[in-house]
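Subject: Protein record for review, amino acid sequence with backbone structure tokens
Category: Structural biology, sequence-to-fold work with a learned token vocabulary.
Format: Residues in single-letter code; tokens as whole numbers, each standing for a residue.
Body of memo: The sequence and its backbone structure tokens, given next.
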Amino acid sequence: MIELRELARREESRQAEGVGEMAAESVRPASGGIMSRGAPGSWLNNAVGMGLGGEVLPGEVDALVEYHASRGVEPRIELCPFADEGFVRLLAERGFVPRIFENVFFRELRAGGEIRAVVTPPDGLVIQEVDTRDESAIREFAMTAMSGFLPPGYAVPESDMEAVIRSARNPKSVSLVARLGGVAVGAGSMAVRGDMAALFGLSVLEAYRRRGVQQALLAARLNIAVARGAALATIGSKPGVATERNVRRMGFQVGYTKVHLVRPGEGLMANVG
């Protein structure tokens, strides 16, 4: 079984690479990770993977603060528990505070045999890979995938829509839509890099939840991952939500928990979602 420190190093590096490919406005290397910017309020205003390779200098934390605050957004970082301890102290000294926690789950994959959902999916559920050349199909996918991460009535910025579309069009990505009666009721993505598959961006429309749609999308992506040679799968989730319950039932276990830290300030916009 993979060591958890190595799991964290690989997953955080994978995520940093993925965010860097999605954030069109600005991406900078930062102490072994990246910091990125999108429109004010965008989840792309973030830093990932910093501090896993050793000491982080005070000036690099100051640069992170300036990088976001200069655009009127809260500085934000996803802090891994295996990050350098001195880095943790520097963030506290500069006023970073916890916003949310995220569990990173993993499971090993083996070739042979089909991975099945624990819950029988609804009759007539069809799961299809998105044709990324079809503009209407990929926009439908992006809107469905983002639906579970945004507050009711929130108008999705075109910059966020474009970021999800860029991710879906990445050759390393697989994006799926679940349909009932021809209606897109759920969607999710996966990035396969070498022998590692990262599942992300899974949403099911509220009216269709608790019916096995999410597990069906999980199983479909895992089977594609196995077919592409992946030996390890990961997925992140806030503690206590439906995704956590579903992935545990599908054989995943917690690898580590990271905290999303922010540095609030007057006039700075927080991320949405």
About this structure: The mean pLDDT is 92.
